[in-house]
Design a protein that fits this description.
By secondary structure, the chain is an all-alpha fold. It folds into 2 domains: 1-30; 40-216. 79% of the residues lie in helices and 0% in strands. Helix 2 (40-81) runs antiparallel to helix 3, helix 3 packs antiparallel against helix 5 (150-166) and helix 3 packs parallel to helix 6 (171-216). The longest helix is centred in the last third of the chain and has 46 residues, at 171-216. The protein is elongated, with a radius of gyration of 28 Å.
Length: 220
């Protein structure tokens, strides 16, 4: 009987020692590319930034729908209350403001993703969506929808200019109002081209900042 009790105690001690060793291994830095263990502040920042990407990605779609609805309402109200061609600039202003907001949200999401990609590299063998998404975009360009909804904004610009032609304007009105519409259309195209180059550009900039930071504060 004493021998059985002694064996059980020995097994329990060995199991407890194994748990202690496992916990110690979890707290030691693993052999990863980043060679450091994240602090509580860094863990909180990492979680908050990934949550921001998720939330803003959803907000971007709803924002587009709200902008289009507000532009349509402004267009109808303007057509009913004002017959002057210059009145079409009011719904165009609504459309432009919404597009700039949408553009800022999208570019902010992309920039956060590149920041996480550079300053929070994954452990070896772990899946990393930041790198996977960027590699997929490079390998299969134009395989997804336009993140800025550029074709719809361009179509809205054309529709917004139709009342100008129906109002039988003079040449000066067509020139001024048409120039404003063309300027906004050029802005939409330029923003679309810039967003296509943003990932590579931001990645290069963050990598340079990371190298400069490591050079200024070398690890002991």
């Amino acid at each position: 009987m004493k021998g059985i009790v002694a064996d059980n105690l020995k097994s329990a001690r060995g199991f407890a020692a194994g748990l202690v060793d496992a916990a110690a291994c979890d707290q030691r830095p693993r052999s990863t590319s980043r060679e450091w263990v994240m602090t509580p502040r860094e863990i909180e920042e990492y979680r908050a930034l990934r949550a921001t990407i998720r939330d803003r990605g959803t907000q971007r779609v709803w924002l587009f729908l709200v902008v289009i609805a507000a532009w349509a309402a402004a267009t109808i109200a303007t057509a009913a209350l004002a017959a002057l061609p210059v009145a079409t600039l009011l719904p165009l202003l609504v459309l432009g403001s919404g597009f700039e907001t949408l553009c800022g949200v999208h570019m902010g999401i992309e920039r956060i993703g590149r920041y996480l990609q550079v300053f929070y590299p994954p452990d070896e063998g772990e899946r990393d969506w930041e790198r996977t998404v960027m590699a997929y975009g490079l390998a299969y360009p134009r395989s997804g929808p336009d993140p800025l909804f550029s074709p719809y904004f361009l179509l809205a610009i054309v529709l917004n200019f139709v009342p100008v032609l129906l109002a039988e304007p003079v040449r000066l009105e067509v020139s001024v109002v048409g120039a404003v519409h063309l300027f906004f259309a050029g802005r939409v195209v330029a923003a679309r081209l810039a967003s296509g180059r943003q990932r590579g550009r931001d990645l290069e900039r963050f990598q340079r900042l990371n190298r400069e930071s490591q050079a200024a504060h070398p690890k002991v």
